[in-house]
């Protein structure tokens, strides 16, 4: 499994299994399948309401805990120092583990500074092995990273062939922060699975459109967490390390960038109002 070295020296798998929108009832089975398939990084969050399923699957897998990299995220309703601190302990309990490999702030809203201080203290206590953020646009990241003791190791943002985050990635790299993609397959939006460029490239390599889209991100150094509830697709998403895209193919896929979100614009007033309703 290819890994990425974070800014504190921790090695993180570059590909993992994401459980966003995996129901609590299905989560244990899906994570168990992912671990059997060969995934060694699992990405969950407090807001997904399935940390317990992840914890049960990891516990029953027979795999050493040290060989599995668990990512979770603090939700905005738990922001502020004291609430975030308590929520970290709650996530540890639900995940049935003494430590979380990487804990992120899920959104750039509400008292993110208080919540991040809780992450820093939990990191110092050994409860978290690395800390970071999610959905922080360049201005959010620059502001936070310039005013904290421990610079975020990871920033998980919407990243796929249609929203490539190349400029944002450059800014992250200035701070030693690694880019991590959520929605690496754009949830199939914008007709991703029938895209002509990706189909043509896939045909030349004997690979699926999904494998081409994921491989393109991997070659850019992006950490990815594709999600499927079907074990055959889990296997396919993992099978992207036995070929390489040429410079020309990488450049052609780069022309697909729209520079816009297919989901949420975190600078949009209505989006902010929506998140405030979810506190």
Automatic annotation (TrEMBL):
Gene Ontology MF term list: oxidoreductase activity, acting on the CH-OH group of donors, NAD or NADP as acceptor
Binding residues annotated for substrate, in chain numbering: 106
Domain NADP-dependent oxidoreductase: 20-256
InterPro entries the UniProt entry points to: AKR, Aldo/ket_reductase_CS, NAD(P)_OxRdtase_dom_sf, NADP_OxRdtase_dom
Site (Lowers pKa of active site Tyr): 73
Signal peptide residues on this chain, from the entry's feature table: none
Keywords from the UniProt entry: NADP, Oxidoreductase
Listed PROSITE patterns: ALDOKETO_REDUCTASE_3 (PS00063)
One Pfam family per UniProt: Aldo_ket_red
Coiled-coil ranges (or none): none
Residues annotated as the enzyme's active site: 48 (proton donor)
Gene3D superfamilies in the record: NADP-dependent oxidoreductase domain
The organism's place on the tree of life at top rank: Bacteria
Family assignment from sequence similarity: Belongs to the aldo/keto reductase family.
Official protein name in the record: 2,5-diketo-D-gluconic acid reductase
Organism field: Xylanibacter rarus
